[in-house]
């Protein structure tokens, strides 16, 4: 147990009626305040891992230590935020209220809150504070979901392909806003994506998964804050090529040499 990291050990999880486990002995370490992306073939267990980390489902075997607590305890303490692919906003509430509501829950849980105006500013939605969800574009709804997740001041933010339905321009602008919010706060982010470019642009570490387990961890040694030139330059392209090579191995059944050191997302 350690308060400065997430430690997942030998995690297994099978769904009833499925012929192979969704997670098959997965090990992972994520130090506090890091931004880590999970990437891997469809069905390799990325969402299942997020659901276990969020305390939404229990593993069959293995241990999960989130900064010295279990997932359910961290969730009860309102210290875990989850941003899904399609945000579920309250249709009857304005943008402002949608973002403010977790704060009220938080105050009851004895945790601090961020001011709603700062968060709306941070995601470029100050002008839409009085709008309702049905009046927003998909990108704006996802911005509300991100602001709402940060309103919880989460120790751990889990994001499951949050930008996959967005056009490239909206996606890039949201990536920058997310990085700004993350850098201003001490949140640890675990981010699922299918985009190698996105994983490299955002992360300290890219975790390449093969079915049920971690295949490789790839450090992203790019300076922060990352401007467009850093994430499109030669160093970023080299890292992206490394991730793609590991992804190809993962697709081919994970026939790589063993991980040289423990599968920590350092
Ligand atoms: N509720 C469920 N019941 C039965 N099987 C499930 C359930 N959820 C996931 N699975 C199976 O578990 C495996 C892992 O699924 P999971 O959604 O975690 O993968 P993923 O990597 O997130 O996939 P994708 O990239 O397509 O979103 C898959 O074989 C999937 O069919």
UniProtKB/TrEMBL annotation:
<keyword id="KW-0813">Transport</keyword>
<keyword id="KW-0067">ATP-binding</keyword>
<dbReference type="InterPro" id="IPR050166">
    <property type="entry name" value="ABC_transporter_ATP-bind"/>
</dbReference>
<dbReference type="InterPro" id="IPR003439">
    <property type="entry name" value="ABC_transporter-like_ATP-bd"/>
</dbReference>
<dbReference type="InterPro" id="IPR003593">
    <property type="entry name" value="AAA+_ATPase"/>
</dbReference>
<protein>
    <submittedName>
        <fullName>ABC transporter ATP-binding protein</fullName>
    </submittedName>
</protein>
<dbReference type="Pfam" id="PF00005">
    <property type="entry name" value="ABC_tran"/>
</dbReference>
<dbReference type="InterPro" id="IPR017871">
    <property type="entry name" value="ABC_transporter-like_CS"/>
</dbReference>
<dbReference type="InterPro" id="IPR027417">
    <property type="entry name" value="P-loop_NTPase"/>
</dbReference>
<feature type="domain" description="ABC transporter">
    <location>
        <begin position="6"/>
        <end position="236"/>
    </location>
</feature>
<keyword id="KW-0547">Nucleotide-binding</keyword>
<dbReference type="GO" id="GO:0005524">
    <property type="term" value="F:ATP binding"/>
</dbReference>
């Amino acid at each position: 147990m350690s308060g400065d990291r997430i430690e997942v050990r030998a995690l297994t999880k099978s769904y009833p009626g499925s012929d192979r486990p969704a997670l098959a002995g997965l090990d992972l370490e994520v130090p506090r305040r890091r931004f880590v992306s999970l990437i891997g073939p469809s069905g390799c267990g990325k969402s299942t891992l997020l659901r276990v980390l969020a305390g939404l489902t229990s593993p069959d075997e293995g241990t999960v230590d989130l900064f010295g607590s279990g997932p359910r305890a961290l969730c009860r303490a309102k210290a875990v935020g989850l941003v899904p692919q399609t945000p579920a906003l309250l249709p009857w509430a304005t943008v402002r209220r949608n973002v403010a509501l977790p704060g009220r829950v938080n105050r009851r849980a004895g945790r601090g809150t961020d001011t709603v105006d700062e968060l709306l500013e941070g995601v470029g939605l100050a002008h839409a504070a009085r709008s309702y969800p049905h009046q927003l574009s998909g990108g704006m709804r996802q911005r509300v979901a991100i602001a709402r997740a940060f309103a919880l001041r989460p120790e751990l933010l889990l994001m499951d392909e949050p930008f996959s339905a967005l056009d490239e321009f909206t996606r890039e602008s949201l990536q920058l806003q997310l990085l700004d919010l993350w850098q201003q706060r001490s949140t640890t982010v675990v981010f699922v994506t299918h985009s190698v470019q996105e994983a490299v642009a955002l992360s300290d570490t890219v975790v390449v998964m093969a079915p049920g387990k971690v295949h490789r961890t790839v450090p992203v040694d790019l300076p922060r804050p990352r401007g467009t030139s850093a994430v499109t330059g030669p160093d970023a392209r080299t890292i992206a090529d490394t991730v793609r090579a590991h992804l190809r191995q993962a697709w081919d059944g994970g026939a790589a040499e063993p991980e040289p050191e423990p599968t920590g997302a350092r």
